[in-house]
Amino acid sequence: MALPAASLAPRTMASRIRSIFSGSVGNLVEWYDWYVYSAFALYFAPAFFPKGDLTAQLLNSAAIFAVGFLMRPLGGWLMGIYADRHGRKAALLLSVLLMCGGSLLIALTPGYSQIGVAAPILLVLARLLQGLSVGGEYGTSATYLSEMADQRNRGFFSSFQYVTLIAGQLLALLVQLGLQKVLSPGELYAWGWRVPFALGAVAALVALYLRRTMEETDAFTHQTTTATDPEAAAQPSKLKVLLRYPREVLTVVGLTLGGTVVFYTFTTYVQKFLVNTAGFSKADATLVSFGALGVAMLLQPVLGAISDRVGRRPVLLFFGVGSTLGTYPLLTALGHSSGPGAAFWLLVLALCIVSGYTSINAVVKAELFPTEIRALGVGLPYALTVAIFGGTAEYVALLAKDNGVETWFYWYVTACAAISLLVYLRMGDTRDTSRMRDDQ
């Protein structure tokens, strides 16, 4: 079925920016909703589980958090197939709708004292929806931003995926700090924890409205226009098509392995590390992490733009070499920090290195695959790798510390970074070999 010729007319920079903004705002809301669960687990855990030991309640809520994490590969698979068949815009609309539903369900579900075991069951259901959503969001968002950007500025525009990802994390923390200021602990435990989830649901509706105004990418539009019905009917399943690209799939795994372990170490785990190892107060650890993440957010488009000028590979090598050589000394120095100021600058240095991966990983992966399999090719292997390695990084760190061999974790992170470095050394520069070059 042919689309009107106007839909294939040259796209203006203004229309690109509008669509990229709408897609990025939705990404911010999704990651806010994802992180707010862990930020407020301390307050809502007693409401969803039987009265008893707080640690047991937190473990139950953490287990449900893990269930959501394990749903991410399924989300990457299902949403990737949907995006490659029905369009990037349609998949992004569905993704934010699922996240809205999950947040609203958490905000409105009565506690265990009102509905008994149905309360944790509904919490699991909500987290399943959110896991599917955020699992599908990454691959589809990476594909959409990369395809919507023009070839000269693809690294710059695609970097806004991690700008908004980090912004979502910071926003969740800001909401927590704000509610802690205006509400008493009793109010937070009683009903205040519902506020951030309600805000997330409302914000998701706003993101849904903005995403409805997005334009479909030229790459997908061109694919739809040139395909004939007999060809479409004869096409094998998307998963079978993906298996035709084993080298590209393994490259995504190798790209992600070191990046996700180092990223989660210096973003999610570092707050606990500063408290348990460096001896900081929780307030100081939070402020150090918040400030450094703010700097990292600003670094993303800078390194993305640099990759447009010098290539993707040099930026990836900056991360690979820096994290392989720098992880052990940086974690050692952070563990012996003399104060918040020193810890802040050490963490900024670490996140500057990490930004060599986060700023361009989306566009590098998108450039590996042809249009008809791009969203699935980016989303599925990424989600599997993150679930296995990124999701377990904190557990491995705490296990090593609990057994008195904390430095083993430093070497574990270093080894993961080194594996990715080997991939960067062997791969070509996707800016020059991109399968997206003829999309526009």
Summarize the structure.
This protein is an all-alpha fold.
List keywords for this structure.
440 residues, Growth Hormone, Chain: A, 23 helices
Characterise this structure.
This protein is mostly helical and 440 residues long. It has a single domain (22-214, 244-426), classed as MFS general substrate transporter like domains (Growth Hormone, Chain: A, Up-down Bundle). Helices cover 82% and strands 0% of the residues. It has 23 helices and no strands. α1 (13-39) packs antiparallel against α11, α4 packs antiparallel against α5 (88-108) and α16 (282-310) runs antiparallel to α17 (312-335). The longest helix is centred in the N-terminal third of the chain and has 31 residues, at 118-148. Residues 1-7 and 228-233 have low confidence and may be disordered.
Radius of gyration: 22 Å
Number of domains: 1
Question: What class, by secondary structure content?
Answer: mainly alpha
Q: Tell me the number of strands.
A: 0
Looking at the structure, the CATH topology is: Growth Hormone, Chain: A
The share of residues in extended strands comes to under 5%
The CATH homologous superfamily name equals MFS general substrate transporter like domains
- Give average pLDDT, whole number: 85
Tell me the name of the CATH class: Mainly Alpha
Helix content: over 70%
Low-confidence stretches: 1-7, 228-233
Number of helices: 23
End-to-end distance: 20 Å
- Report the principal-axis shape: globular
Run of helices and strands:
HHHHHHHHHHHHHHHHHHHHHHH
- Main β sheet profile: none
